[in-house]
Amino acid sequence: MSLFFNYTLNGISNGMIYSALALALVLIFRATKIINFAQGAAGMMTTFIASSLLAHGVSYWWAFVLVLAIGFAFGAMTERILIRPLQGKSELNPVIVTIGLLVVLEGVAGAIYGNASRGFPAAYSQSGLTFGHSRIAFSHFDVFILVAVLVLMIAILILFRATTLGLRMRASAFAGEISRLLGVRVGILLTLGWGLAGIAGSLTGLLVAPTSSFGPYYMDLVLVYAFTGAVIGGLESPVGALIGGLVTGLCISYVGGYLGSGLEPMGALVLLMVALMARPEGLFSRPAARRV
């Protein structure tokens, strides 16, 4: 029973990380119907920048804030420079561009920082919390992960549901041409959506790095798990990203705990296949109407 409890806590912590990156995927898909396969690599790159800032004496929290800002700028520039010129062309072109950007970012990171794994400091202690005479597999850093991702999720939901800017962003995503006719500056709002996704991706990179082998490729598997969570929840639902990420984190934790960590990617694949067969539109998305 104690093992199951600890695996559950570990799944919640990891699931919140997957939820943050799943949210980044959802924000971009809502805006442009594109899966950004370079989202994890962008988070990796900004985390390397944070590591460089820390090495030059910048405090952890200043580096944290600066990297989130850099992530926003990088996401916005990606949309403006690489994605927007492809509007009106083949839908496959942006996907190929994001895959190419993934390869480029990992290559650049390897060339600048090397391919060897390194350490990255955590904001808080990673030792398990103690209750009475028992120690659980949930640390102060896990609490920070939980709070950070929830704050991000709540901020995004407030933006979309309680502000005029959020309403315009939703309208631009679902009816771009009509929004333009009504005077909405759709291009700027799409760029803003990519920038917000950049913040979520950078946050994910900062949360994952202290708990894994930090190197140019450390976000690849996280992207796979986040994509699984986004599909489970629905690629157009921020709430679905949270729930889907948690479901993915819990399932992977149980698979890794009871069957071995080497089977975790296979567990994610099986989970993705089951989700696509049972409810391909996701738990929090409505089935698309089809003309017959």
Can you characterise this structure?
The structure is a single chain. This protein has 292 residues and is mainly alpha-helical. It has a single domain (2-114, 136-278), classed as Orthogonal Bundle (ABC transporter involved in vitamin B12 uptake, BtuC), CATH 1.10.3470. Helices cover 71% and strands 3% of the residues. The chain has helices at residues 2-32, 39-55, 60-83, 92-113, 140-162, 164-174, 176-181, 186-208, 220-233, 238-259, 264-278; strands spanning 128-131, 134-139. The longest helix is centred in the first third of the chain and has 31 residues, at 2-32. The protein starts with a helix and ends in a 14-residue tail after the last helix.
Structural class estimated from helices and strands: mainly alpha
Low-pLDDT runs of 5+ residues are: none
Query: Could you describe the largest sheet, including whether it forms a barrel?
Result: 2 strands, antiparallel
CATH fold-level name: ABC transporter involved in vitamin B12 uptake, BtuC
**Beta-strand percent range:** under 5%
**Element pattern in H and E:** HHHHEEHHHHHHH
Strand order of the largest sheet: 1-2
CATH domain class name = Mainly Alpha
Layout of secondary structure:
Elements: H1 2-32, H2 39-55, H3 60-83, H4 92-113, E1 128-131, E2 134-139, H5 140-162, H6 164-174, H7 176-181, H8 186-208, H9 220-233, H10 238-259, H11 264-278
Antiparallel strand pairs: 1-2
